[in-house]
Design goal:
This protein is α/β, with parallel strands linked by helices. It has seven helices and seven strands. It has two domains: 109 residues, no CATH class; 72 residues, no CATH class. The chain has a five-stranded mixed beta sheet with strand order 5-4-2-7-6. It has a two-stranded antiparallel ribbon with strand order 1-3.
Length: 182
């Protein structure tokens, strides 16, 4: 059972999901976030632990994902909606860089929105996760940002300033200092 998912594995799993939706006569929608967006849309890293997503219709997609996990020997939670708590009330979604299927529309956050999410989460590296720093640095560089204030302006475009924790401010200062030192 793979501990990480690469581009080819994710794309095969999404194709299998499309086939199951087609068999059910349904067109679904999957909005991918986090590491899977970094892998698929930006080619920013080779793997991710799972596909964090918000999807419709939820019950049918959960059932299909469970069957696909078994068929492809993927982790049971390869597709999950744990990201729901980080979704902004003012999201910005695009399809750029993503495969599209006849019965599965795949979208993702814009680079700016994804950067804002990474900064709000500000997870540190651990034994089972790379954390958010590398992705946030990549996205800030991708967007041509130079200062912490520019990044924080993007974060507050998607999240109220009241959600800006001190850890987010330090996280942003740290990644921008690292970019300046490159």
């Amino acid at each position: 059972m793979p501990l990480t998912l690469d581009r080819a594995t994710i794309e095969r799993a999404l194709a299998a999901l499309n086939a199951r939706l087609e068999a059910a006569g349904v067109t679904g929608e999957l909005c991918i976030f986090g590491g899977s967006a970094m892998v698929l849309a930006f080619d920013a890293r080779p793997t991710t632990r799972d596909v964090d997503a918000v999807f419709r219709p939820p019950a049918l997609i959960r059932e299909a994902a469970a069957a696909i996990a078994e068929e492809m020997s993927l982790p049971a939670n390869w597709l999950n909606d744990g990201v729901k708590g980080f979704v902004s009330n003012t999201p910005e979604y695009v399809t750029e860089g993503l495969l599209q299927f006849p019965h599965l529309r795949v979208i993702r956050p814009s680079a700016a929105y994804l950067l804002a999410m990474k900064c709000i989460a500000a997870r540190v590296e651990g034994y089972d996760t790379p954390g958010d720093k590398g992705d946030a640095r990549f996205l800030a560089r991708h967007l041509g940002l130079r200062t912490a204030d520019e990044v924080l302006d993007i974060v507050t475009r998607y999240y109220p300033a009241s959600r800006l924790a001190v850890k987010t401010q330090y996280f942003v200062q740290e990644i921008m200092q690292e970019l300046a030192n490159e």
